[in-house]
Amino acid sequence: MLDQSTSMPLDWVDTLSPADIQTPAFVYNADAVNARIAGLKDALGTDVIISFKASNQLDLLMRLEPENYDGIEVASRGELHLIAGRKGPDIFINTPALNEQLVRSGISAEATFIVDTPEHLDMIARLKGKRTVHPVSLRLSNKIIADVCPQAPTLRDDQFGMDMPQALAAVEKAKELGLQINGLHLYAGPHTFRKAARFVVETMKVAMTQIEEALGHDLEVLNLGGGLEENWPDLNHDFDGYRALLGELPSRCRLIHEFGRAIFSDCGIFAVRVQQVKHVMGQPYAICDGGMAQAFLLAQTEHMMRKYRQPRLLGRAGDVREDGLATIVCGSTCSRDDVIGKIPAEVKAGDVLIFEDCGAYTQTYSMNNFLQLGEAGTYVV
Ligand SMILES: Cc1ncc(COP(=O)(O)O)c(C=O)c1O
Questions:
Q1: Which end of the chain is more exposed for a tag (fewer CB within 10 A), N or C?
Q2: If you measure from the C-alpha of residue 52 to the centroid of ligand 1, how many angstroms do you get, rounded to a whole number?
Q3: What pTM does this model have?
Q4: Ligand 1 atom closest to Cα of 114?
Q5: What is the CATH number of the domain that holds 279?
Q6: Number of domains in the chain
Q7: Where are the alpha helices (DSSP H) in the chain?
Q8: Which of 373, 319, 340 is nearest to 81 (CA)?
């Protein structure tokens, strides 16, 4: 028998039957997503919003309980168009690549802008015409954290948000333009919760004092980003201590966290069907009907050291191969990089292989699904 102890079977996955799945396919479980969000709200004691880029499936979103989450954060016009018509919690637009089309769509959708530069305010003021827009939040750069808390660990550099002089310039600009600012956003980055969450709170305290002084009024919304891992329930985080820290922020403020992977990761799987098993010099290869074209991340093209995921067989237990060789799981493109996993089992044509923990980013982080940005045009001259 194949030892499957390394891949934790999820209850709902085992209710699926290979015959019911037209592969390649992503399968999501809405109850699992609802439970994850409820668990996060409970652990953090704040509002939780969905970072739609992690899993921008409208069908899934429609199956979530709207009273269970507090908003959706989108980062592109494609994402906004997917959700704009639906009735539900607040929409937040948060991207350094804000452009006129997205601003127009965002104003029509009555979304809240989280502005990344002072210039974003110019665009919003110019395009809003006579319409009212919700008060905006200012996105602060995570570089501010090291300034305020020199003892904070080094964070990966990124291009998001404003430093303090820029944020103060944004305050002045908003005053000139007649736009309201009522919030701040500070996100340390993915997987940073354990090492940086307390420094985010400390930095927020300092930054909000400076911004409120410049504004001449109180702030009402503090978004502390996310940064929880995909397997956060297993990591023994000190949520009691964190909630106590959050209690030091003014109680008048709406506190928000926003998550992608911590909500969706183990609520979705990717399934492929084996078309043929071939052996070259004894090495078994399972050629499947899907691979990097649908689940680019599994191909690990961006990793120096590729450590392939181990799928499992759906609907039957596999036997370990007598020769001890792992079957290399290949996708359906002609790229030699289209290897998405290895399985130490005897695999045969028609088998369905499933990859667990594919609910976040695996479907969206593909060449043209990411943020629904679309393909490049083609010209022949
Ligand atoms: C502003 C913002 N919030 C939240 C997220 C979600 O991050 P994660 O999936 O690590 O929770 C991202 C991811 O890129 C982001 O850019």
A1: C
A2: 9
A3: 0.91
A4: 1
A5: 2.40.37.10
A6: 2
A7: 30-44, 58-62, 77-83, 100-108, 118-128, 143-148, 164-177, 193-215, 239-246, 261-264
A8: 373
Q: In degrees rounded to 5, what are phi and psi of residue 173?
A: -65, -40
What mean pLDDT do residues 88-94 have?
92
Q: Cis link prior to 190 (omega < 30° from 0)?
A: no
211-266 confidence digits (pLDDT tens): 999 999 999 999 999 999 999 999 999 999 999 999 999 999 999 999 999 999 99
Q: Is residue 212 included in any domain, yes or no?
A: yes
Domain CATH for 92: 3.20.20.10
> To test the ligand 1 pocket, which listed residue (44, 51, 264) has its Cβ within 8 A of the most ligand atoms?
51
Q: Residue 208: pLDDT band by 50, 70, 90 thresholds?
A: very high
Helices (runs of H) and strands (runs of E) counted in the chain: 10, 15
51 inside domain = no
- Decide: 161 and 116 in contact? Cβ < 8 Å: yes
Residue 94 near ligand 1, beta carbon < 6 Å: yes
Q: Which of 372, 376, 370, 366 is nearest to 292 (CA)?
A: 366
Q: Which amino acid appears at position 269 of this protein?
A: I
Q: Distance between CA 254 and CA 184 in Å, rounded? A: 11
Pairing mode of beta strands 136-140, 112-115: parallel
What's the pLDDT score for residue 6?
A: 33
| Residue-number span of the structural domain to which 228 is assigned | 56-259
Q: Is the pLDDT of residue 162 over 90?
A: yes
Instruction: Tell the residue number behind the tokens 């009735």, with chain if given.
Output: 87
Please check whether residues 152 and 204 belong to one and the same domain. Answer: yes
**54 CB within 6 A, ligand 1:** yes
Joined tokens for residue 44: 């953090």
